[in-house]
TrEMBL record:
Keyword Acyltransferase: no
Organism expressing this protein natively: Neptunomonas phycophila
Name this polypeptide is given: Triosephosphate isomerase
Residues at which substrate binds: N9, W10, K11, G173, S212, G233, G234
Pfam families: TIM (PF00121)
C-alpha cells in the first residue's frame, strides 16, 4: 500500500517571525496522525529555525531544491549533505517553477533525484504538464518523459525510494484545481508506467497531487484510488487550512 503524505511548500514566503507563528499554529492544531506523514519545506535560510522548532515534533522537515553536486565551487548552491546535516528528510526536485524559471531539464532533475538519494534524503519528484501541452493532447507524453528520465538515470528500485508529485502547471497557484477525475487519470497513468518496470514498486509508490489543493477540495482529491496525499503551496501558509488538509489525508 502506498504511504500517505502531506507536504507543504512555502516557496519564497515568510520571515523568522511569521514562520514562528505558522509552525506554532500548525503544531497546536495538528493531532497525532496515524496514516499520514506531514512535512514542511521552508526557504533555505529558515531550515535551521524550522528544524529547531520541529525537534521531537510530529512534522518532518523538507527542502525545496538541492544541488546535483556533492560539494565544491558551486556558488549559491546547497548540497544534499548540508540539508541532511539540518535534519531534512525530504527534498523537492523538478518543481515546475524551477523547471520553468531555472531551465532545469529532465536530465538535471534526474541528477538531483540521484543526489538526494546519495545524501539519504527522500526526493519528491515533481512532474506535470502546462496548459498548452494538455490542450495539445500531450499531457501523458510529457509526464512519461519526466518520469522515464529518472528511471533511466537511477533505475526503478531507486525511484521507489522517492515520491512522485503530479502537479499540473496550470493548476499551481492559479486556484484552478484539476478535477478529481483528471488527477486520478494521470495518477493511474504514472502508476501504470512504473508498474511496467516493476509491478510491486508501481503498486507501492506514493503519488501526491499538487495544484490549488485547499481545505474544501482535499478530501475528494485524496479519496481517489491513486492519489496518496498532496503537495501544498498557498494553503500551507495558513495553519488552519494546512491542518484541515492533513486531516483530510488521514
Ligand atoms: C506547489 O507549488 O507545489 C503548489 C502545489 O502550489 P499551490 O498549492 O499554491 O497551487
Amino acid at each position: 500500500m502506498p504511504k500517505m503524505y502531506v507536504i507543504g511548500n512555502w516557496k519564497m514566503h515568510g520571515s523568522k517571525i511569521t514562520n514562528c507563528r505558522l509552525i506554532e499554529g500548525i503544531l497546536s492544531k495538528l493531532p497525532i496522525l496515524t496514516k499520514v506523514d506531514v512535512a514542511i519545506c521552508p526557504p533555505f535560510p529558515y531550515l535551521q529555525q524550522t528544524s529547531d522548532k520541529l525537534f521531537r515534533r510530529p512534522i518532518l522537515l523538507g527542502a525545496q531544491d538541492l544541488s546535483c553536486a556533492k560539494e565544491g565551487a558551486y556558488t549559491g548552491e546547497v548540497s544534499g549533505d548540508m540539508l541532511r546535516d539540518l535534519k531534512t528528510r525530504f527534498v523537492l526536485v523538478g518543481h515546475s517553477e524551477r523547471r520553468a524559471m531555472h531551465n532545469e531539464s529532465d536530465q538535471v532533475v534526474a541528477n538531483k533525484f540521484a543526489a538526494a538519494l546519495e545524501a539519504d534524503l527522500i526526493p519528491v519528484l515533481c512532474v506535470g504538464e502546462t496548459l498548452e501541452q494538455r490542450e495539445a493532447g500531450h499531457a501523458e507524453q510529457v509526464i512519461a518523459e519526466q518520469v522515464s528520465a529518472v528511471i533511466n538515470a537511477v533505475g526503478v528500485e531507486a525511484l521507489s525510494k522517492g515520491i512522485i508529485a503530479y502537479e499540473p502547471v496550470w493548476a499551481i497557484g492559479s486556484g484552478k484545481t484539476a478535477t478529481p477525475l483528471q488527477a486520478q487519470h494521470i495518477h493511474a497513468f504514472i502508476r501504470g508506467l512504473v508498474r511496467e518496470h516493476n509491478e510491486a514498486i508501481g503498486s507501492d509508490l506514493s503519488i501526491l497531487y499538487g495544484g490549488s489543493v485547499n481545505a474544501d477540495n482535499a478530501a475528494t482529491l485524496f479519496g481517489q484510488p491513486d492519489i496518496n496525499g498532496g503537495l501544498i503551496g498557498g494553503a500551507s501558509l495558513k495553519a488552519d487550512s494546512f491542518v484541515s488538509i492533513c486531516l483530510a489525508a488521514n
